[in-house]
Each structure stands twice: as C-alpha cells, then as structure tokens.
Design a protein that fits this description.
With about 525 residues, this protein is an alpha+beta fold. It is built from nine helices and 24 strands. It has helices at about 5-15, 25, 175-180, 215-225, 230-235, 265-280, 345-355, 395-405, 455-460; strands at about 55, 65-70, 85-90, 100-110, 115-120, 130-135, 140, 145, 160-165, 185-190, 240, 300-305, 305-310, 325-330, 360-365, 385, 410-415, 420-425, 435-445, 470-475, 480-485, 490-495, 505-515, 520-524. The longest helix is centred in the middle third of the chain and has 18 residues, at about 265-280. The two termini are about 30 Å apart. The chain binds fe (ii) ion. Fe (ii) ion (FE2) binds near residues 247, 417, 419 and 449.
C-alpha cells in the first residue's frame, strides 16, 4: 500500500462527523442551582450503591485521595434520591481493615452525582494503606493505595504502569485484568478514559446511548466504563494519576474548537459538562474542581529523589490543528511561532519544574507523540500527523531548546493517543541522526482502542526514513510497565492475546532500558 492510500484511510477514519446538539446540552447544569436538601443518613437503595467500585489517586508523601460514587442504577443517572447522603470511610494499615488509622464521614451530594472524594492527610510516606466506604448497611469493596516517599528522600525503586485509550466498544479490558495483578506502586492514565461516540453495530460491546453532550450523558458514559470489573480491580489495587486526551470531550478538539460544526458557545457548555463528569469520576484533588469549561489538570508529582512526573494537558489550551488537521505535508501554519499544545502558562510551569528539579528522572506524562515521524517513506515527500507535536513545530523546538540549554536529568516522555507501541530517541534535529539525543519517548498502545490492521504495513515501511524510531508495533493492545531505579529505567510493553474474549494471556512484547546519564533507549 502506498502512503497516499494510507493517508486516505486515516482521513476517512478521522473525517469530521456531523452532530446535532439538542437543548440537553445545558440541562444537567440546572442541578447545580438546587438548594441544599435534607441529609438522608440511612437511605434505602434499590440496588448495591457501590456499583462503580472504589479508587484512589494523586499520591503525595502524607496524603492521598479516596474516591467512590453512590450509584445503585449507574447507567440511568445513578438512581439516587436527590438528597445529600453521608458516607463513612476508614483507612487501615492492613488488608483486612483491622488496624484502622483514620476514619471519618464525607457527604455525597446530588450536585456531584453522589460522588465522594476524601483527601486523607497525615499518612506515613512510602507505604501501603487499605480503605473502605460504608453507607447505611452497605459496604464498599476494599481498596489499596500507597503514599509517595518523602520529598528528596533517597528512593530506590518505583514500579508503575501507564495506559491509555479504552474504547468500550472495541473490546474487553483483558489488559486491566493483568495490570491489576502486576506489582506496581501506581498507575498513570494518559487519556481517552472514555469515548464520546454513539453505539456502533457489530462491536463486541455497545455504548449506552448516542454521542454524549449533556452532563447526564457524560455521567452515564463514565458510569458505563466504571462498571467494568477489570477496570475496577485496577483502580482498587493502586493509586492512579490521571490526565485526559480528546475523547473525554470530543475527538481532536482544541481548546474551544470542536471536531464538528458546533458553535463555540455550545461546545464550551459541552466541555463544561465533560470536565465536570470527569472530575466527578476521577480521584483528583479538590483543587481540580472545574470552573465552568475550565479545569486545571496539569500538575506535578515527585517520588523522593528518584523521579518526578510532569503531568500535562495538551487539549485544553492548544491552538487549532494546523493545515486542517489530519495526516498531510506541513503547510506554513505548522511552523507558526504562536502555535501551542500546552498554552504559554503550562509551558512556563513545565520549564520551571524542570529547572528546579533535583530528581534523577524527569518525566513528561502527556498525550500525543512528541517525536517527529514522517509517515511517507519517500525521501522527497512527507506526511505528518497535524494533531501531534509534528503539527506544532515551533512549540516542540522551544521545548527541545530548553532541554538542550538546561539539560535536566534524564528526560523521559510517556505518551498515549496513537493506539500503538513506539520507542523514539528525541533528537535535537530529527533530520540529522548524528544530532544530540535529548531524551527518550515511550508511546504506549491502547487498552482496547483500534489501530487498524491496514496502517501497520505503511508505518513499518516508513520506519527506515525515521532512524530515531527504535520500535513500532500496531498489532497488540495492552499497557506499559516501567521499573525505575537510580541506575536504570526499564520499559516492558505488556500485551494481551485478545480483547475479543473475556480471558486473555499477557506477555512482554519488547523491553527497552535507558541508563542513567545515557540518553536514548536500548532494546534488551
Ligand atoms: Fe485514543
């Protein structure tokens, strides 16, 4: 297949979809204006209220966030009475919840869809805790979480996995079943936690309702995804650090610009619904509470002196994809100096973090591929993905200039979005293989989302024209496991045998290491 056919395939896949926005877009926001109502201490539930499991996240040395949501009828608005309901929670140092070290009561309110977040403070650094919720006579599953080591402390090893892109309709979460059984300290999610689309016939699983727009739509969609037992197990076993990509709102949106023909006002109210439902369903800190269509998700986590994550948001503040988006040769717009994926404020925040960092490994946890990749194997022509950093050349150049000037210790970039596995050396000049290597990028495949079989051959054919790309696989779904010590970073691409059945085996498709002080990845 030549590259033009490949281009057409991708264009067809990304083609703009028409969408009619109904009055439902604003309906959900009316809930927020309700007056506080009577607290119901022991409500009667029509069904088990902890249907969405439990979760924890945003670990700090002495604090972690616990999450659950009361939803006896999860796919139909939750099925809760329109009253605040108190929930008891407790934290223990053992898996059987005998050694309780903290307990308290939190309020589940209808304004936040009876979701609950508890910010537990005063914990010991670098240790496991177990937690559980109770409402009336109903008790939740027990979750396990872990605090980060104390800031600056010597920390010998961090084990984590990163995942992204879990289109419900494309298959089963066999990858999460295996991820939940790994020995990890935390999980990082790089976006596309939900997909916004309506149901598609012939798929292994079906979405609950048409393309989502209203707050109620987004809540029901998050609830659908969270009913999955394998996803619940992965949340229950580890703290998660989450960031989003486009499908939490709308395919390939950029700031206030939607994929489809939708007014900016209508899209911003849709974005507000999406962000609010995201906040309600994720173990985020209350500092992330959305203000209308704005939610600050970019944030930093340090693990002793070993590693820090700069968790980025490359959707909310980005300028529009240049040259009309999609896969094509670059037009002048792709080189615009004002173009940005992060927005200026987040960019400066990132540089500040990297300048101040004393960590051995400095991670950018983000969404779209940072490395250049020319999808056209012919030397005289080019094809770049305008939704990736390849469409924002000046922004990437600023970041690379910064890395070259300041030389933060061991930059590693973790990426999702593209539903396939890649390893890149990040080159000062991608067109010159002899130029300096400034860092390493690991791109994780999807949990379930599709990478069309027809794309594999043309990407493979383009690999020789991109010598900084050390690895590519498009055939397998899974997650990426990382083990980081002061001396070495190891990445294992963990892949499952199938997503079309409830059971699958897991194996390591490829492993790469980066040695401390030697930028660039080596296959082992
Ligand atoms: Fe995706």
């Amino acid at each position: 297949m030549d590259s033009l056919q490949f281009d057409r395939l991708l264009s067809a896949r990304m083609k703009r979809r028409s969408l009619i926005i109904g009055a439902g877009a604003l309906a959900g926001l009316a809930i927020a204006s309700q007056k506080p109502s009577r607290v119901i201490a022991t409500p009667r539930f029509t069904d088990y209220p902890f249907s969405l499991g439990v979760a924890s996240g945003d670990p700090l040395p002495t604090s972690v966030v616990l999450w659950t949501r009361l939803a006896p009828d999860p796919l139909n608005g939750g099925g809760m009475i329109p009253n605040p309901v108190p929930i008891q929670w407790q934290v223990a140092t053992d898996a059987t919840m005998r050694q309780v070290v903290q307990r308290g009561t939190a309020m589940a309110t209808p304004e936040l869809a009876h979701s609950v977040r508890v910010v537990v403070e005063g914990l010991q650094p670098d240790r496991w805790y177990w937690y559980q919720f109770q409402v009336g006579k109903e008790i939740s599953p027990i979750g396990r979480t872990r605090t980060a080591p104390a800031l600056g402390d010597r920390f010998a090893r961090l084990r984590f996995a990163f995942a992204s892109c879990q289109d419900w309709q494309n298959g089963y979460y066999t990858a999460y079943k295996h991820l939940a059984e790994e020995e990890l300290d935390l999980v990082l999610h790089l976006g596309d936690y939900i997909y916004e689309y309506g149901p598609e016939a012939g798929k292994p699983r079906q979405h609950n309702g048409p393309e989502i727009v209203s707050l109620e739509d987004y809540r029901n969609r998050h609830a659908l995804y969270k009913t999955d037992p394998n996803l619940q197990a992965a949340h229950a076993n580890f703290p998660w650090i989450v960031t989003w990509d486009d499908h939490e709102v709308d395919n390939n949106y950029a700031d206030a610009i939607p994929e489809d023909d939708q007014s900016q006002q209508a899209f911003l109210s849709r974005r507000a619904n999406a962000y609010r439902a995201y906040y309600e369903h994720m173990p985020l800190r209350p500092t992330a509470f959305p203000k209308g269509p704005d939610l600050q998700l970019y944030r930093r986590f340090a693990f002793g002196d070993l590693l820090e994550f700069n968790v980025l948001d490359t959707r909310q503040y980005r300028t529009d994809q240049p040259c009309g988006d999609e896969l094509k040769p670059r037009c002048p717009e792709a080189f615009a100096t004002q173009a940005t994926l992060t927005g200026l404020k987040q960019e400066q925040w990132l540089y500040r973090n990297l300048t101040r960092s004393r960590s051995r490994w400095n991670v950018l946890a983000q969404q779209v591929m940072l490395a250049q990749f020319d999808f056209d194997p012919r030397p005289t022509s080019e094809l770049f993905n305008m939704d990736q950093w390849d469409g924002y050349v000046a922004a990437r150049q600023r970041l690379f200039q910064f890395l070259q000037n300041r030389q933060p210790s061991n930059p590693v970039v973790l990426t999702g979005d593209i539903h396939s596995s890649w390893v890149h050396d990040l080159k000062a000049d991608f067109n010159n293989p002899n130029s300096a290597t400034l860092g390493t990028e690991f791109v994780g495949t999807s949990i379930t989302s599709d990478f069309p079989q027809a794309f594999i051959a043309p990407v493979t054919a383009a690999l020789p024209a991109n010598p900084h790309t050390k690895f590519f696989d498009g055939a397998f779904r899974g997650y990426v496991r990382c083990e980081v010590t002061p001396q070495q970073w190891q990445t294992d691409f963990r892949v499952v045998s199938t997503i079309l059945a409830l059971e699958a085996t897991v194996s390591t498709l490829a492993s790469f290491v980066v040695q401390d002080g030697q930028l660039g990845a080596q296959r082992i």
